[in-house]
């Protein structure tokens, strides 16, 4: 099994930074984290525009990046998030780590598949 934890620190100027920490374990087959398929960065981006009746306000753009897609036991997972708020409203960032597991049982011609998702961390 592999045991991980995620530690989140919010950097607030001139204030004590709030922190959160969550441990989780992965039980499964051995994988080589240095394999090329796991070394590619994971990048995400989303853009939202808020409206009030017919007035469109400035967009909010979120860009996120993980260095790669596989980590070893005890290694920190660093999530980079960049929020570009071009509107006047305050923006709060919420982070969720969701574990997706797919089970497959081979029963001859027909197999049985089950998918489960579990909220590991919400901050």
UniProtKB/TrEMBL annotation:
GO terms for cellular component: cytoplasm. GO terms for biological process: protein transport. This is Arrestin C-terminal-like domain-containing protein. Residues 57-108 form the Arrestin C-terminal-like domain. Signal peptide: none annotated. It comes from Homalodisca liturata. It comes from the Eukaryota. Transmembrane segments: none annotated. Pfam families: Arrestin_C. SUPFAM superfamilies: E set domains.
């Amino acid at each position: 099994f592999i045991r991980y934890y995620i530690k989140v620190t919010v950097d607030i100027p001139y204030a004590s930074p709030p922190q959160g920490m969550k441990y989780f374990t992965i039980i499964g087959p051995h994988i080589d984290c240095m394999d090329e398929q796991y070394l590619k960065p994971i990048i995400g981006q989303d853009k939202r525009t808020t409206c009030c009746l017919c007035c469109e306000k400035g967009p909010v753009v979120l860009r996120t990046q993980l260095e790669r897609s596989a980590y070893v036991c005890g290694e920190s997972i660093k999530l980079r998030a960049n929020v570009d708020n071009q509107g006047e409203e305050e923006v709060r960032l919420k982070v969720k780590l969701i574990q997706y597991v797919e089970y497959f049982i081979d029963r001859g011609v027909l197999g049985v598949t089950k998918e489960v998702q579990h909220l590991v961390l919400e901050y």
